[in-house]
Design a protein that fits this description.
With 394 residues, this protein is α/β, with parallel strands linked by helices. It has helices spanning 19-25, 67-84, 118-125, 140-149, 181-190, 204-216, 237-248, 257-274, 278-292, 302-307, 330-364, 373-384, and strands spanning 53-61, 92-100, 109-115, 159-167, 193-200, 221-224. The protein has a six-stranded mixed beta sheet with strand order 3-2-1-4-5-6, with helices on both faces. α7 (237-248) packs across α9, α7 packs antiparallel against α11 (330-364) and α9 packs across α11. It starts with 18 loop residues before the first helix and ends in a 10-residue tail after the last helix.
Length: 394
């Protein structure tokens, strides 16, 4: 497929990353697979604090035509997070979610704030069902406004802040009681938020608007498949899946009664949902292992807080202790926790070993071309990470 450059009349685009250089750095995406892609107005890399952060908010059209995309996002959210975390230096990763439909549907916009707990955002994502729509155009403007205005974006210079707008229908511009995307994009840039526009389908109106959004908000534009990349089963998935249950079994949930109940319920739902696919279960386990090395696996994870130096076991109130510790003496609690920390380390180390073999197997059995949602998200993120001096291997 021939690569086409986007030329917008009367607009001068400043390319500091040419299409050719982007393609040279791409992993798993051949030049012929890119329908359209451009990037505009790169700034010089910023001065870093100690640990860089990457904040990503997905703005997803959740109408009926987007069923395959939504289901694919559910399968690939863990893999996306894992690949972001392979950067050097390893960045802190936070993910948020905005899903939208249109007026007259069950809802117009639902927003879930940035969090470093991927289990928490996965729990919200698996509840999303693609339904509604009808007159083709959707309330894209309101969704973008929520993503820029209502998300708790960081304001420090070591954070890469990115929105991925994914949809197949252009916005209602006849809704005069809300802000429209040109104004929203201007605000995004003032807050150092990049908006990337990924179009599904072939509608020309959507193409034009998505290109303009990417231009105004200094992001990338491309056309993608509705589906995510195919799952590639590996010989290591069964053992990793088994270890996943063991690793999450080391989570001691602390906090108020409500916090413990909600976190426990969330983990149970997530394990069941991920369990429908060994690939997703393996991706989730790998993410947990990566997080376990530095601290918490999930929200209200006592062991993670202790490992990360954020919590002292002796400072936890009796009524906020995990159920497993409440009937033990302080000395017994410490022995129990120390033993569990050692067990967590052994399990996470084994998952990490298997993950390296799994990645190698997947790379050897992956097609060279990929126009999927997750493939483009990863490549855009890797290219933009230069802004905060995070590097990725080719």
């Amino acid at each position: 497929m021939k690569l086409l450059l986007i030329l917008i009349p009367l607009i001068v685009i400043n390319y500091s990353h040419t299409v050719e250089s982007v393609l040279e750095n791409a992993v798993g995406i051949a030049q012929d697979d890119l329908n359209y892609i451009y990037h505009v107005n790169d700034d010089d890399p910023v001065v870093l604090n100690e640990k860089p952060t990457i904040e990503v908010v997905f703005v997803l059209d959740a109408t009926g035509s987007m069923t395959d995309l939504i289901e694919g996002a559910k399968r690939k959210i863990w893999d996306i997070a894992n690949k972001i975390m392979t950067g050097d230096p390893v960045p802190e990763v936070k993910i948020g979610l905005v899903v939208y439909r249109d007026r007259g549907d069950e809802f117009v916009v639902k927003q879930y704030d940035l969090t470093d707990d991927i289990d928490a955002i996965y729990n919200k994502l698996i509840a999303v069902q693609a339904q509604g729509g009808g007159d083709f155009q959707e309330d894209v403007n309101m969704a973008l406004a929520y993503a820029v205005d209502s998300i708790s974006w960081s304001d420090d210079g070591s954070t890469l802040k990115m929105i991925f707008l994914v949809g197949d229908a252009d916005p209602h511009m006849d809704y005069n009681d809300e802000r429209h995307y040109p104004d929203i994009c201007k605000q995004a840039i003032s807050q150092d938020i990049i908006i990337n526009a990924l179009r599904c389908g072939s509608n020309s109106n959507t193409e034009q608007v998505w290109q303009e959004i990417a231009h105004l908000a200094e992001g990338y534009y491309t056309t993608i498949d509705y589906s995510a990349s195919a799952d590639i089963p590996t010989p290591y998935d069964d053992e990793i899946s088994s270890l996943s249950s063991e690793l999450y079994g080391t989570v001691l949930v602390y906090g108020s009664d409500l916090e413990r109940t909600e976190t426990t319920a969330m983990l149970e739902v997530n394990e069941e949902a991920a369990g429908y696919s060994k690939t997703t279960t393996a991706d989730r386990a790998v993410n947990a292992a990566m997080r376990a090395h530095g601290g918490t696996i999930t929200t209200n994870d006592l062991l993670g807080g202790i490992i990360g130096g954020e919590i002292d076991l002796d400072d936890i109130e009796e009524d906020e202790l995990p159920d497993e510790l409440k009937d033990l003496t302080p000395e017994q609690r410490q022995v129990y926790v120390d033993s569990l920390i050692e067990e967590r380390e052994q399990i996470s180390n084994r998952i990490t070993e298997l993950s390296k073999l799994r990645v190698q197997y997947i790379e050897e059995n992956t097609e060279d071309t990929d126009e999927s949602f997750d493939a483009f998200v990863i490549e855009i993120l890797k290219n933009e990470a230069d802004r905060i001096n995070v590097r990725y291997e080719d």
